């Protein structure tokens, strides 16, 4: 069998579905130029997050793991005038670059970065109105704790999306025992026992290779 170039597959689909975008090109280049790792969601995944946010008319979005704000901008663009996205980031340099990128995207007033360990930031949030959508995309080892907090912070009927839950099939390969992979397994076990969550894993392939999103609704 021939080896498929999955980045080319994404590029082909994107050529029909995702227009060229000067702002996002700037965001990617600015992030690379300032030394951020190349681990943002792909354009196709970013657009998926945008479409989810549009579908539910999200007005309040919480993100765990900002990096340069690439996924934040995709989701932030789905917000109405009075909408807000709060994104949590440990690394001050990443947060600085993200803020520059939000300015470039014209989203300064809607996208707010909170610097610090995301779990502490989450536990200190007491929102008057709960979030409509939470996107979790930070250190995998802490996913069970992030998910529990996300559940507290999201409204009934709200959505929690968790990135990188497939990891090239390492999650189901029990001979793989690193702490991040274990974090995903613990998250799955947590959800299995939680009667207020309904979820599924959508495994994906593309320029980010073999991975997947967990998509959950808080009942
Ligand atoms: N969501 C971003 C996107 O798609 O554009 C990518 C996020 S990147 C995969 C993960 C980010 O989480 C990194 O910027 C990293 O510094 C941050 N991070 C790691 N551990 C963290 C923690 N304990 N608290 C907050 N952020 C953390």
Automatic annotation (TrEMBL):
InterPro entries: Cation-dep_OMT (IPR050362), SAM-dependent_MTases_sf (IPR029063), SAM_O-MeTrfase (IPR002935). Keywords: Methyltransferase, S-adenosyl-L-methionine, Transferase. Gene3D superfamilies: Vaccinia Virus protein VP39. It comes from the Eukaryota. Signal peptide: none annotated. Belongs to the class I-like SAM-binding methyltransferase superfamily. Cation-dependent O-methyltransferase family. This is O-methyltransferase family 3 protein. It comes from Lentinula boryana.
